[in-house]
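Question thread 4412

I'm putting together a teaching handout and wanted feedback from people who do this every day. The idea is simple: show students a protein as raw sequence, then show them the structure tokens that encode its fold, then repeat with a second protein so they can compare. Below is the first pair exactly as I plan to print it.
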Amino acid sequence: MYKKGEVTYQALPLPDRVQLDEVDAIAASTAFRDYMRKRHSVRDYSDRDVPEEVIRACIEAAVSAPSGANHQPWHFAAIRNPEMKARIREAAEEEERKFYGGGASDEWLSALEPIGTGVDKPHLTTAPWLIVVFAERWGVNDDGERYKNYYVPESVGIATGFLIAALHHAGLVCLEHTPNPMKFLPEMCGRPEREKAVMILPVGYPADDATVPAVAKRKKPLERVMSIF
């Protein structure tokens, strides 16, 4: 974390070692791969409660992510307040009406059709939690002086990936919703103007009749997304 005046490097012995031998590493990596393949973005939620302790632990996992210059340019607002969730849903659906009513190109709408998205966003109020991910565009030190953050989109993206994996590990589901523009979110969540909301994750348990788009099970083969030299 950035602190004014700290300009020298100090080495610290590696505090944790989790390395495995070759056999155990293969077993662990393939088991994790198989478990992550069971992760799905879900729009149909149960109203079953999720303990705050679970949400806290998942966010704590997220903020352990690496970041540019270790500035940690993120904030996670966890919302269970029904009135706040209703306001977010209302604003999101208003934006979606504009999007589907002419704001999006025919090509974009055609690409979304197999996903089954639409104007209605009941998951934003049914899910017991919404986690709003904020990106801190610049920081402010203890003296009120502004400082630059580095690789903000990349850092926040990595932390959000950690969060999604942690939620899945806890047996929960989520959905990646990108607010556009929903500029009221920083004020609603008590965040400063230097922070921008980049994602809303409805979080909870899937409904008994939850479905996913069939196309979501189509993944590119490994040889198309990986090169080994």
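The second pair follows. I'd like the answer to focus on this one:
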Amino acid sequence: MEEKMSSKELEDLYFMKAFGRDLKIVKGSGSYVWDENGKKYLDCVAGIAVCVTGHCNPEVVDAICNQAKELIHISNLYYVPNQGELAKKVVEMTGIKGARAFFSNSGAEANDGAIKLARIRTGRKNFVAFVDGFHGRTLGSLAVTHKPAIREPFDPLEPKCTFVRYGDLNALEKAVDENTAGVFVEGIQGEAGIVPAPEGFYEGVRKICDEKGALMICDEVQSGMGRTGKWFYYQHTGITPDIVSIAKGIASGLPMGAIVARDGLTFNPGEHGSTFAGGPILCAAALTTIKIIEENLPLISEKGKMFMDGLSAYSPRGMGLMIGIPAGDEERSHKIAEICRKNGVLVNCASHATIRIVPPLTISKEEIKEAVSVIDGAFKETA
């Protein structure tokens, strides 16, 4: 009888080598996951800020299963169950009056949609984004993503994009001109190592965009859906963006994204589309996800403070449950993550030797204490 091959053996033979990994997760419940050997981990990665309602949240599972029994897929040639209800809810969450939503299958695809919308409605072709910013890996979203290691091998890219130092309003003002369709900006640079915007930065970006006729495009893919203690980071600042891109936590792990654009910015028939985007099951999961986030939203800042206070010796930065802790160098950051994993807590190494903590928004205070204890121990062990 032929011996069954392991996941590693199968992937070595048949899967493109795009990822580096050595752990197989087979089960999840709440804030915890289990590997193939039965070991339990407190998950402070949460699918990289995706599993906001915890793993296999029963309400989300019920919403998915109930909808699957009625209709799994129907083309956007027809009205899609749950799609209009979700669009209304997401627009209301953004607080942008007269706005409209369009759904996608990922954050990168949402940012691609934002690029298309900005170009066609302004008549301009170029963009400005920021050093260390990350907006996706599709060709369009990669063009406005700074990281040279992942962008430059695919040059030349469109649209043309100028990168300026994050937080530098003088450089931004010089970079934005009559050919700039939009400025892509993250309120907290997630992939860069949880780097919050300097005070007054968002207000300055808004002012420059208004003066130059460019659109302010807020990438809330990682910082949105309640992660910072409000629905979206920009709501901490008082500004209103022209376009918001959303994904990650919107459907509790199902592949979904969205853009919301202000009044006057909309796709006309034939200008954009998607076969799978905004399908019945995805929208059902998203509506239930939003309900659960609403119940947890008032507690997120307090939970984040527990992490911050418990790990204050290591200069954590961030907001809500989007936290980064500088480890000093790459070797130490990977060692800290390895020790945490050995002791039953999953954390993630982001850029610039940062330990990233983005747990489910439903994580309990007791679970936070457990995570803090293990992470603190790892930092002490590697000091």
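Top answer:
Good format. For the second protein you could add a caption like this: The chain has 13 helices and 17 strands. The mean pLDDT is 97.
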